[in-house]
């Protein structure tokens, strides 16, 4: 049986690091359909406790509700500039310490990062947009401004 990694171009697959081995081919087949849809659907990675790092492909525009919820080993994630929406509890109870919010972001759920001690890095325009909208995120988390 051919590996899913050989079937699809590597540039459209997420780059991932796990704490221990699991059936990555099965997981990548599941992810591939999400990449075609340009979003990571609700609960896609939920409870994958061994997931440590992920670099999301550039064509992903949406991280839906609970997408990475309770990935208790997740420490690093790179969001591409194409991401415009981060859903409800998308990163609930992860070990993320920081995240860079893309310039094109339109919506971040107020509880997207609950259960984390995260520092949110954002461009000045993005920060001001959420501050103007009186987003609960402004008071809940530490923000650092990128020039």
Describe the fold and architecture.
- 21% of the residues lie in helices and 22% in strands.
- By secondary structure, the protein is of the alpha/beta class.
- It has a single domain (4-146), classed as Leucine-rich repeat, LRR (right-handed beta-alpha superhelix) (Alpha-Beta Horseshoe).
- Strands 2-4-6-8 form a 4-stranded parallel sheet. Strands 1-3-5 form a 3-stranded mixed sheet, with no helix packed on it. It has a 3-stranded parallel sheet with strand order 7-9-10.
Summarize the structure.
The chain is an alpha/beta fold and 147 residues long.
Write the layout of secondary structure elements.
Blueprint (H helix, E strand, L loop, with lengths): L3 H4 L7 E4 L5 H14 L1 E2 L10 E5 L6 E2 L12 E3 L6 E2 L11 E3 L6 E2 L10 E5 H9 L4 H4 L1 E5 L1
Pattern of helices and strands = HEHEEEEEEEEHHE
Largest sheet: 4 strands, parallel
Overall body shape = globular
Q: Which parts are unreliable, with pLDDT below 50 for 5 consecutive residues or more? A: 1-13
How many strands appear in the DSSP assignment?
10
Question: Which architecture per CATH?
Answer: Alpha-Beta Horseshoe
Mean pLDDT: 80
Taking strands numbered 1, 2, ... along the chain, how are they ordered across the largest sheet?
2-4-6-8
CATH class, named Alpha Beta
SSE-based structural type: alpha/beta
The span between the termini is 49 Å
Q: If you consult CATH, what is the topology? A: Leucine-rich repeat, LRR (right-handed beta-alpha superhelix)
Radius of gyration, CA atoms, in whole angstroms = 15 Å
- What is the domain tally? 1
Q: Tell me the helix content.
A: 10-25%
């Amino acid at each position: 049986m051919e590996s899913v990694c050989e079937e699809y171009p590597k540039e459209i697959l997420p780059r991932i690091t796990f704490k221990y081995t699991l059936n990555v081919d099965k997981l990548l087949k599941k992810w591939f359909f999400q990449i075609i849809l340009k979003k990571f659907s609700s609960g896609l990675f939920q409870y994958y406790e061994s997931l440590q790092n992920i670099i999301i492909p550039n064509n992903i525009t949406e991280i839906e509700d609970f997408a990475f919820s309770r990935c208790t080993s997740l420490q690093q994630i790179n969001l591409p500039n194409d991401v415009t929406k981060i859903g409800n509890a998308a990163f609930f109870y992860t070990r993320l310490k920081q995240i860079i919010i893309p310039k094109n972001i339109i919506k971040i759920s107020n509880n997207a990062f609950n259960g984390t001690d995260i520092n949110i890095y954002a461009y000045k325009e993005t920060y001001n947009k959420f501050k103007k909208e009186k987003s609960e995120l402004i008071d809940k988390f530490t923000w650092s401004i990128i020039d």
